[in-house]
Write a structure and sequence with these properties.
nine-stranded mixed sheet, alpha/beta, globular
Amino acid sequence: MKKILIVEGNLKEENQQFTNAGIQTHTESLKDSIAYFTKNLEIDVANPSSDPKVFENIKNLKEYDGLIWGGSSLNIYNDTIEIRRQIEFMKESQKKIKKILAICWGMQVAVTAAGGEVRKCQKGTHRGIAHQIQINDNGLKHPLYKNKKNNFNTPAFNFDEVSKVPDNAILLSSNKINKVQGLNFKINECDIWGIQYHPEISYDKMIRLIHFRTERLIEKKAFEDQKEIDNHVQMIEQENQISNKDLRMIELKNWIDYLNENKI
């Protein structure tokens, strides 16, 4: 049985607020989505931001066959001690784990740890959904996008974007808001598949997150008012009705298949 590590990107305080509101943490969502495809994985969880002794509690990163690094409400350029802990843990993971799936915030941490850069989005934000992600020629050849439509909508929530990719990185997909939607790069012996969106999170959860963050989203000018939020949620609900769960989450399935390969 393969063994993987899930890294939680949010602070424990944020996760407690999720729990109090009846919303799954991102790690809980990820575990459920993995279980949809396989129950034949041993899974550990780490939270570098909220665990200053994470290197003591996760003693041997080399024992993991793979790592999935999930989303977060943090902004990497804020450079707090909690964010620095995550970057340091990612650097160590890139030295000792051969296969990493880096999702949204996870990709931003992976890119930063490998010498790339992240900034606030210049062309807008994704508020629960990303539209018309186009897979490029490199992406069409990459196992991340096996059996994926070459133009698709997907759950997404991000205010930041990768502005500089690591050396030798290969761009796999883009849309009009984020040039870097899918990315592959290698560092040391680590092969990193990065995505700026959330195949592991349902549209239903994205809608709940919008309602949960209403005041914050209006304050950040992501929405003008409640009426705009209601109209946006209605659009996501319509997308949810036509979305196919297996196709929506196929990137996660493809990475699990890759994890179970004996070669790298």
